[in-house]
Every structure is written in structure tokens, then in C-alpha cells.
Specification:
The chain contains ten helices and no strands. With 321 residues, the chain is an all-alpha fold. It folds into two domains: 1-165; 175-321, no CATH class. Helix 2 (35-63) runs parallel beside helix 4. The relative contact order is 0.07.
């Protein structure tokens, strides 16, 4: 049904355009005084380009426009993974990795330039596609992959210097995400230097599983497991008015529950990777374990909200007494 595909793309595009207007207008009024602010601005531009390309591709599929679909799909992925998600991840990592994992800070000069260089690589890639300059596109892909690898390796190096001896779920999730991202980027380098690999049916699926399922989802869940209990603790601390202490964060979201959920998530990733090469045997188990892992995640986060409310009620009662 081409009308449904085009209509869905239009609704999605208009919705995200509204979100971008709400976010970008105040964001771009803020001076770029830190790498995080600069990265957030570039990431929003990357999201705008990603959505525009996605809507255009959906219209092309729906109405039969004569465009090079595979080339444009690769470019759409480049904007999504590189200029949007990759730049956004780096911008947030500059804050959350030192804050929550107690690591040294990222070096200032590379932090300032990584978002700009990654964004520039995707721009050059786009120019190469539009003006049919394959060598420029190849060079842009190569530099973008190397930049991503450099960010992952630097982050791993900082984590090795963390001041907290005992690894928690957030640390483990970032390790998992960085490991998967490194394998994905190495496979991207392989395709760039040896293009015949891209003709295989397995490579795009494997790349997507490693970078999205193993990489970005792991980063998101890992940050959720630190941000949710931290915000709950902060609200309880303020509610107690320095008279009633807030419970420790592990009383709001237990470490064992997070570790068990992470094991399910890691198993789902392993099964999904195996399903690329043996889909008949492993695709359904991978999907089932992924559903279980996400149900476990919802259970953990809902439990954190429930315990927050219980502690808030207890603190209120103690203050009233």
C-alpha cells in the first residue's frame, strides 16, 4: 500500500520536525562553550538530515521515484549512525562517563573536534554521492570509521583508569557497547577497503546488529541504569530537606537485578549474531531472548519507580512526625 507508506513517512517526518523546532530554537541560542553543547547542536542537524533522507526514501519506494535506492540508503545510514547517533553519543559521553563511572575527563582538544570531523565526513560523503566522486566518498567512509574507533578506544582507556574498583552494570554495559561498536567499525573498515564484502547478504545485517543492538542500545540501557536511580535519589534527598536522609541508589535499583538483565541482553546479541549465519535455528530464539531482556528492563525500571514512591511516602511521613 504505497499510500500507507507515504502517509506514515509524512506523519513521522512532521512529528520529528516539530520536535526539532522545539529543541533547536533554544539550543542554538546557547553559546558553544563546551564540546557537549557543540555536539548536541550538530547531532540535531544530523537528525534533521536523517529524517529528511528517510522520508525521501519512503516516498521513492511508495511512488516509484527513479533514485539510486541502495546508495541513498547507505547515505541515510551514514547520517543516522554517524552525524546523529555517533555525535550525540560522544557529546553525552563527555559528561556521563567521567561523572557516573568516575574516570578522568576526555582531553579537551579532541573532544572539541570529534563531532565536527564526524559531521564533516558525512557531509563529504553526501557531496561524493551527489556529484559522483567515489574516491571522496571512500575517503570519507574510511575517516569516519577511524574516528569512531578512536572514540571507542579512548573511552575504553579512560574506563581502565576509573577510580571505582568494583564494576557496576553501567560500566559493564558500556564495555559491551564499546566492544560491539569496535567490531562493527572494523567490519565497516573492511568493506571500505575491500568493497566485494558489501555484496554479501550477511554483512549489512551483522553490521546493524553490532552497532544498533550491541552498541547504541547497550549505551542507552547502561545510562538508564545510572540516571534513573540517581534522579530518584536526588529527588528524595531534596524531599528530605536535610532532615531525613535519602536511601542509597542501590536500594532504589539493585545491582543484581541490573546484572541479570544485562546477561539476557548479551545473550540476545550473541544469538542475533549467530542468527545472521543460521537464521532457521537461531532467529526465533534470539527474538525471544531479546523480548525477555526488554521485559526484564521494564520490570527493573518500574521497580525503581515503585521503590522511589515508597521512600517518598516514608520520608513525608517522617517529616510530618
Amino acid at each position: 500500500m504505497p499510500e500507507a507508506l507515504a502517509g506514515g513517512a509524512l506523519v513521522l517526518g512532521v512529528t520529528i520536525a516539530g520536535f526539532l523546532m522545539v529543541v533547536m530554537l533554544p539550543l542554538f541560542r546557547v553559546p558553544s562553550t563546551s564540546p557537549t553543547i557543540r555536539g548536541l547542536k550538530l547531532a540535531m542537524l544530523g537528525l534533521a538530515a536523517t529524517v529528511a533522507l528517510g522520508v525521501m526514501l519512503a516516498f521513492a519506494l511508495a511512488w516509484g521515484w527513479q533514485v539510486p535506492l541502495m546508495v541513498m540508503a547507505d547515505l541515510h545510514a551514514a547520517w543516522g549512525f554517524g552525524a546523529w547517533a555517533g555525535v550525540l553519543l560522544a557529546a553525552m559521553a563527555y559528561v556521563v562517563v567521567p561523572m557516573f563511572q568516575l574516570t578522568p575527563g576526555y582531553q579537551a582538544r579532541p573532544s572539541w573536534w570529534f563531532p565536527v570531523l564526524m559531521f564533516a565526513c558525512v557531509c563529504f560523503w553526501s557531496v561524493a554521492v551527489l556529484f559522483e566522486m567515489p574516491l571522496v566518498g571512500l575517503l570519507a567512509q574510511l575517516v569516519a570509521s577511524l574516528l569512531g574507533l578512536a572514540f571507542c578506544i579512548v573511552t575504553l582507556r579512560l574506563q581502565s583508569k576509573r577510580r571505582r574498583a568494583r564494576p557496576d552494570a553501567t560500566y559493564r554495559y558500556w564495555q559491551l557497547g564499546l566492544g560491539c561498536a569496535i567490531f562493527a567499525l572494523f567490519s565497516g573498515l573492511t568493506v571500505t577497503l575491500w568493497p566485494p564484502v558489501a555484496n554479501s547478504n550477511e554483512w549489512p545485517i551483522l553490521f546493524g546488529i553490532l552497532l544498533i543492538g550491541g552498541g547504541f542500545i547497550s549505551f542507552i540501557v547502561g545510562m538508564l541504569y545510572k540516571i534513573v536511580p540517581f534522579l530518584a535519589w536526588l529527588h528524595l534527598q531534596n524531599l528530605g530537606e536535610s532532615k531525613v536522609p535519602a536511601p542509597a541508589m542501590n536500594k532504589i535499583l539493585a545491582e543484581k537485578a541490573m546484572q541479570r538483565q544485562m546477561i539476557c541482553q548479551a545473550l540476545a546479541i550473541v544469538l542475533a549474531i549467530g542468527a545472521v549465519f543460521s537464521p532457521d535455528w537461531l532467529a526465533r530464539p534470539a527474538g525471544l531472548v531479546f523480548v525477555v531482556a526488554n521485559a526484564f528492563l521494564i520490570w527493573n525500571l518500574a521497580g525503581a519507580v515503585r521503590r522511589y514512591r515508597q521512600h517518598a511516602l516514608l520520608i513525608t511521613e517522617k517529616l510530618a512526625a
